[in-house]
Write a structure and sequence with these properties.
Shape: globular
Number of helices: 11
Order of helices and strands: EHEHEHEEHEEEHEHHEHHHH
Oligomer: single chain
Number of strands: 10
Helix content: 40-55%
Radius of gyration: 20 Å
Largest sheet: 10 strands, mixed
Distance between the termini: 52 Å
Amino acid sequence: MKFTIGIPAFKATFLKECIDSVLSQTYTNFEIVIVNDASPENLDTIVETFHSDKIKYVRNEKNFGAINVVDNWNKCLSYATGDFFILMGDDDKMAPNYLSEFVNLIQKYPACGVYHCRTLIINEKSEPIRLTEPRPEFESVYDSILERMRGTRLFFISDYVYRTETLRENNGFYKLPLAWASDDISSYIAAHKNGIAHTNEPVFMYRQNPLTISSTGNINIKMDAIMQEGKWLQNFVAENPENTIDKLIRTSIQQELKLFIQKKKIRTIYSGDTSIGAFIKWFTVRKKYQLSIPEIIYAVILSLKEKSKVRYE
């Protein structure tokens, strides 16, 4: 089996480390597709240092930008010739046995459209700072959604391996502004028919740093994405699964969905500007985002508490 590793590249700082980690794989049947999203940084020089016929390098004439970053994900996918597709962040890393671990998992669960591994979170010095939670070796999409909603799991786009055919049948990665929950929903769609298989080997390394899209971006755009995520989940659980266990889990999802979306909206508000002007702004758009006045006040209080905590530590 052949893998395509797509790297939608924009930042130069860790790109060499990222490419090095892919080229160091013990399983060698793969290709790397790097799509430079019209970066102002000198990515060409970095890529040119690698003399490997496994690398295909493409430059976008126009920047898709953070809001439309999923379009660049799907552009990477459009060049894929592998049976399986992985999307790598330009600052993340693979352990040398990343691909070989997934080969074993795919052979054990050949019907799945998507596979997952445990993740080691690293800092800017590539030092490990956290390990994501273990998961069952196999589960249905309903289990996956419910556990994510309950906050027991972290999701990163690069700890998933997709069957290329499955992604293409579903029109690529699911697009939301800033890719906010695009990784979640893309995995749910791919796991809908045949579930998802996991390995608890931490073969992916996610780099936590302030330059990631999840750490930046317009609060209103994130709120728009949350609203779209909620609508997708509502539509998904409107379908009645055949499996009895899935039906029971679906009921739990339906019961907890409103609170899940409510918490995401509150968290998004208090992560942004909490000045009087911002409070007034959220008050004026509360109907659009289905926010109550107590929810807005609660978000502001949480933010003030967090800022006070930082100030006095």
